[in-house]
Amino acid sequence: MSSTPDPALGVDELLGTTRSLRRRLDLDAAVDLDVVDECLRLAMQTPNGSNAQRWRWIVVSAPELRAEIAAIVTDAYHQLTGTSPDDGPRPAAPPELLDDMTPAARIGVSSRWLVEVMADVPVHVIPCVARYQTPGPGLEQFHEATLWGSIFPAVWNFQLALRSRGYGTCLTTLHLVGHDRMAELLGIPPEFRQACLLPVARIRGANRFRPAPRLPLAEVVGRDGWS
């Protein structure tokens, strides 16, 4: 069963307002896996290195596997933040408090929330990619850029396709602290690198967002050189 993109969501709005969603993910609404497949088909129309298509997408919906993935993510979070599972879940911050926080503080609160509910997010998608070239001396940057450039455009296409159909996600990499555990859990061959983890759910509330604050072009764009 396919779904139709929101006709009111134009291209510029889709590109300019698609956000990393955490607290707006609806943990109770069912995810249509046919829609996920449809979005993956669109994602894989993305150009990739030499059209080798050395990618693999693992779609996880089984509750027991989601719980295992959530445990890996939680352990990574505590390792990187120096916190402990004994700290327990933090109480949800009220909306008015979030409004007064800096962007970095808001991201911290929503990231912690996502870690705590990861097992309840209906679908986890793990994009993986393998090299199609043999790395040589002095070519490390070339091969790394080619590797990641062959998967992340497809990841973003997948996120855009989801958004256009009323689904949200957030690109996360915490699980890579325990990438070996993830590989064993999901049977990922050693030649494949895990790119990220995408928790997928329906968007809770209206599928409308404001553009995010960004630096002015003059501060980030160089003309004919660095500055």
Key descriptive features of the protein:
six-stranded antiparallel sheet, single chain, alpha+beta, 41% helix, globular, 227 residues
Task: Determine the mean pLDDT.
Answer: 92
- Broad structural category: alpha+beta
Number of strands: 6
- Could you give the distance between the termini? 51 Å
- The stretches of 5 or more residues where confidence is low (pLDDT under 50) are none
Overall, the morphology is globular
Number of helices: 9
State the helicity in percent bands.
40-55%
The major pleated sheet works out as:
6 strands, antiparallel
Strand share of the residues? 5-15%
Rg estimate, integer Å: 19 Å
Pattern of helices and strands: HEHEHHHEHHEHEEH
Structure description:
It contains nine helices and six strands, in the order αβαβαααβααβαββα. It has 227 residues and is α+β, with helices and mostly antiparallel strands. It is globular.
Concise account of the structure shown:
The chain is α+β, with helices and mostly antiparallel strands and 227 residues long. The chain is 41% helix and 12% strand.
Can you lay out the helices and strands and say which pair or pack?
Elements: H1 11-17, E1 25-26, H2 33-43, E2 55-60, H3 63-81, H4 95-100, H5 103-117, E3 123-130, H6 140-149, H7 152-164, E4 167-168, H8 179-186, E5 192-194, E6 198-203, H9 217-220
Antiparallel strand pairs: 1-6, 2-3, 3-5, 3-6, 4-6
